[in-house]
Design goal:
This protein is an alpha+beta fold and 219 residues long. The chain is 38% helix and 30% strand. The protein is built from three helices and twelve strands, in the order H-E-E-E-E-E-E-E-H-E-E-E-E-H-E. The strands form four sheets. It has a four-stranded mixed sheet with strand order 1-12-11-8. A four-stranded antiparallel sheet has the order 2-3-6-10, with no helix packed on it. The protein has a two-stranded antiparallel ribbon with strand order 4-5.
């Protein structure tokens, strides 16, 4: 009787051990399968993200290439006079600019002495002809006044003067904004107002230039 009981206990113990091993193997198999499924899903997500990034990059490159081609095909306007309008095609957008008038100030203007001979004040109107808003400051930052067609010129100092309205804020599509550009300069019979040469050399815009005679300026 005792011997039969021992066999029964031993048999139950073996069955319990085998059952536990079977459950562990099943759990391990399930864990392995879940890990493989997660890895597959993660790889799929990474591939989707990579594809989306590549597509976005390709679209941006195509868009930039189209803009640069449009700029390259745009006509330069190099001999405009006061009151005439020039059209810019740039990486920022397209817009028309008109230099409506120019005034020659003396060596001192509102308490500020010129670093050269005089101050020049230009009245300007910009019309946004693109589909997106343009920042007026960005447009004027690339402009310069000079006495010669060769070499560099002088940037805008309009923010220093209380009586001068500087270009600030957005210009919405199809809207206009008028303000002023002020720069110190040497005394000259002729002045040129244009995009900086570095801006043009970089291919980000066509060139538009006004030739302003001293006799046509307010003094």
């Amino acid at each position: 009787m005792r011997k039969s009981l021992r066999y029964l206990v031993l048999t139950l113990a073996i069955m319990l051990v085998l059952g536990a091993c079977g459950n562990n193997n099943a759990d391990n198999n399930n864990s392995t399968q879940n890990a493989e499924n997660n890895s597959t899903n993660n790889n799929a997500e990474v591939n989707d993200n990579d594809n989306t990034s590549e597509n976005n990059t390709a679209e941006n490159e195509d868009e930039l290439s189209a803009i640069l081609k449009t700029i390259e095909e745009a006509d330069d306007q190099l001999n405009l006079k006061l009151g005439e309008t020039g059209s810019y095609v740039t990486t920022l957008g397209t817009y028309d600019m008109t230099v409506t008038s120019a005034e020659l100030k003396g060596y001192e203007f509102e308490g500020y002495e010129s670093e050269l001979d005089c101050w020049v004040v230009l009245d300007i109107t910009i019309k946004n002809t693109s589909d997106e808003a343009l920042q007026a400051e960005d447009l004027m930052e690339a402009m310069e006044l000079t006495e010669t067609e060769e070499g560099s010129g002088y940037g805008d100092s309009s923010g220093a003067f209380e009586s001068v309205e500087e270009f600030e804020g957005e210009i919405a599509p199809n809207e206009e904004k008028s303000a002023q550009f002020v720069a110190y300069a040497y005394d000259s019979d002729t002045y040129f107002f244009r995009k900086t040469s570095g801006n043009i050399a970089g291919g980000s815009s066509n060139q538009v230039m006004w030739k302003i005679e001293k006799d046509d300026m307010k003094q």
